[in-house]
Amino acid sequence: MGFPNGYETGTFLALDMGGTNLRVCEVILPEEKGEFDIIQSKYRMPEELKTGTADELWGYIADCLQQFIEYHHEGEELDQLPLGFTFSYPASQDYIDHGVLQRWTKGFDIDGVEGKDVVPPFEEALKERGVPIRLTALINDTTGTLIASAYTDTEVKIGCIFGTGCNAAYMENCGSIPKLAHMNLPPDTLMAINCEWGAFDNEHVILPRTPYDVVIDNESPRPGQQAFEKMIAGLYLGELFRLVLVDLHDNKEIHIFEGQDIGTLRKPYSLDASFLSAVEDDPFENLSETHDLLASKLSLRATKPELELCRRLAELIGTRAARLSACGVAAICKKKNYETAHVGADGSVFNKYPHFKARGAQALREIFDWDPKKGSKSARDPVEIVAAEDGSGVGAALIAALTIKRVQEGQLAGIKNAGAMLKGTKAEKQPEEQV
Ligand code: GLC
């Protein structure tokens, strides 16, 4: 609830359960405004865990946290450390359901977790191992990105992730949140809203879909869900590209990779977004890098027209993703009547995909009809998507800090178990020391 003021202090742990890595950070917020120090360790997220059991998942995560603490605090007598856990799936962080996972996204498929609160089994796994950690806040990556970015740049009003998944968060007045009406919170109190816009248009009434979008959806672990995300997010870009090439090859009127064995290309999800990035990044007129990539990854010998087709296809897929992303940002700006804003954005697609930023900025200019003169190099666009601060590290720590501060002030709305939250932590021993 609310933005940080830049003066939050304390030591916090942050945990991010991403698709490929598990990241654990210790974040120190010093007295200086908007500053932070961070140490981090990354642990591989074994692929089997994503479709394994809930016990294996929580056990593995608790083991990593234990290793982190043993490594960085060997032999120390520790207070319970407050933890901000970035759990980037549609889980309720609201007053009604707390940490209930609505549904897995991004290729996760672990039985017995959907529809349940993820916090108790996670805390149980920590307790079993005697790890000195108090879970203080469960957050979404977009919320972390929003808060971390706003900590260092007060113009930030929206946080976005364009990565394996895609989503955004912004600040809403409690008075405009119908499902919280019964709480009678002050109407102008701010609360972060995780939009879960990946699920936009699940009914397929707004956005035109290609046959390839339909295949992606049908073959996914959760057909009918995350319709918008499946057109944008990094997880699906390579697959879209692959599906088009296979379809063109199988169409006997189109002679592409004719007479060649496309066995590798037929394997679902054999290409990821970095493949498309490389195709779009090929600096050579004769597309020789694309040629070599097709040879090494797919054992295909491509002619010049085939290479040009691959390049154009990557451009189309990448451009659609960037322009749809901009629609989401524009929708929030319109809803909130933001005439100017910074949008803190993170994620592999935003950071690494060629031209993604420029294409998104161009789409915003078209949507808002900004005067092209103002869009010239020297002038800045009124709404700018900028690189975010580290949301799942600094953002998670800040949200933990803000939560502890609220508990200390007796503002318990939305706090699940206020008594237990501070127990054994520094904040309990030194309540006068404001976080
Ligand atoms: C998926 C998740 C969402 C997350 C996004 C970016 O859309 O459902 O919670 O914010 O990916 O990681």
Question: What's the topology here?
Answer:
Layout: E1 10-17, E2 21-29, E3 37-44, H1 54-72, E4 81-86, H2 119-129, E5 133-139, H3 141-152, E6 156-162, E7 166-173, E8 190-194, H4 211-219, H5 229-232, H6 234-250, H7 273-281, H8 288-298, H9 304-336, E9 341-346, H10 348-352, H11 356-368, E10 383-387, H12 391-408, H13 418-422, H14 426-429
Parallel strand pairs: 1-4, 4-5, 6-9, 9-10
Antiparallel strand pairs: 1-2, 2-3, 6-7, 7-8
The structure holds alpha-D-glucopyranose (GLC).
Query: Can you write the helix and strand succession as a string?
Result: EEEHEHEHEEEHHHHHHEHHEHHH
Task: Identify the strand order in the major beta sheet.
Answer: 3-2-1-4-5
Question: How many strands, what sense, and barrel or not for the largest sheet?
Answer: 5 strands, mixed
- Total number of helices: 14
Shape: globular
Q: What portion of residues is helical?
A: 25-40%
Radius of gyration equals 23 Å
If you average the pLDDT, what whole number results? 92
Q: Which cofactor or ligand species appear?
A: alpha-D-glucopyranose
Structural account:
With 435 residues, the chain is of the alpha/beta class. Helix content is 39%, strand content 16%. A 5-stranded mixed sheet has the order 3-2-1-4-5, sandwiched between helices. Helix 1 (54-72) crosses helix 2 (119-129), helix 6 packs across helix 7 (273-281) and helix 6 runs antiparallel to helix 9. The mean pLDDT is 92. Residues 88-90, 105-106, 140-142, 161, 163, 165-167, 196, 198, 229 line the site of alpha-D-glucopyranose.
